[in-house]
Write a structure and sequence with these properties.
The chain is mainly alpha-helical and about 270 residues long. It is built from twelve helices and two strands. A two-stranded antiparallel ribbon has the order 1-2. The longest helix is centred in the middle third of the chain and has 19 residues. It is globular and about 65 Å long.
């Protein structure tokens, strides 16, 4: 709810709602850059970053959100716009955190100004891609959580009498995102502003301090990476759903239960994502 209040405070609710509705109707977007660098969107991004605990973590330039708090609103807006005129992100700081299984996960920590810029992009891109995502995808999405996923599983057990789970994991997913494929998927999902795509390309190829420029991957620790990961996985989500849950039937049925019973008469393999 605090996010929605912040949208209202900066008069961005109508803008984001309009983007969502147009994307739902199949519109494509060639002129998003001006919305991204609008004063209201930049100030909203700064406010959202301030509430993030990670804003106290320095990047390679040693700066945190406290350094940016000293700027006036006008100076903040001008600094973001100036940086984006010929955008070149600063080096990303590499950090390693231990996983539950004893292995180590690499994080990429962008500098604080680059994080604010990524948040500016995320806010405008999110309504567009959200309109296209599979409804039962729950990771890294607004108003979705692990609790919703658990409720979905419980429903399938109780109503569908399904009791087997196949657990699938993509090894080192964030580290292996194909940049060329990602940009094509962004284009196909409706984000067709070439200037925006060029900036995103620079974000995901930011030099990692001590390691060089990555040829693939979207660094964990970046504000935009979770959204981009869902764009990459969306084709898989939709394909899996097409194999059973939303497979077209020859006639209309009044309920999900009726549709499920009808699909059981086919040779399709029953399964839900």
């Amino acid at each position: 709810m605090s996010t929605l209040r912040n949208w209202d405070y900066y008069n961005m609710t109508e803008t984001f709602t309009d983007l969502y509705e147009k994307a739902s109707q199949g519109h494509t977007f060639s002129y998003l850059y001006e919305t991204i660098i609008s004063r209201e969107n930049i100030l909203l991004a700064f406010r959202m970053i301030k509430t993030n605990k990670g804003s106290k973590t320095p990047g390679t330039d040693g700066k945190t959100i406290d350094d940016m708090k000293e700027l006036s609103e006008n100076d903040l807006v001008n600094e973001v716009r100036t940086k984006l005129r010929n955008y070149c992100p600063k080096k990303v700081r590499r950090e390693w955190i231990e996983k539950d299984n004893g292995k180590w996960r690499p994080l990429g920590i962008p500098c604080i100004l680059d994080r604010v810029i990524q948040q500016c992009f995320k806010q405008v891109l999110e309504p567009i891609v959200e309109s296209q995502f599979f409804k039962h995808s729950y990771g890294f999405r607004p108003l979705q959580s692990a609790h919703h996923a658990m409720a979905r599983i419980q429903s399938l057990i109780n109503r569908g009498q399904l009791h087997y789970v196949v657990d699938v994991d993509i090894k080192s997913f964030f580290d292996n995102v194909n940049h060329r494929l990602l940009k094509r998927q962004l284009w196909n999902i409706g984000i067709q502003d070439r200037k925006v795509l060029a900036c995103i390309s620079k974000m995901i190829t930011s030099e990692i301090d001590g390691e060089g420029v990555p040829e693939k991957g979207s660094p964990q620790g970046g504000i935009l990476s979770p959204l981009l990961s869902n764009v990459v996985l969306n084709d898989l989500d939709q394909w899996v759903a097409d194999q059973w849950e939303v497979f077209p039937l020859t006639k209309a049925y009044s309920s999900d239960d009726a549709r499920r019973r009808a699909r059981k008469q086919t040779n399709l393999k029953q399964g839900y994502l």
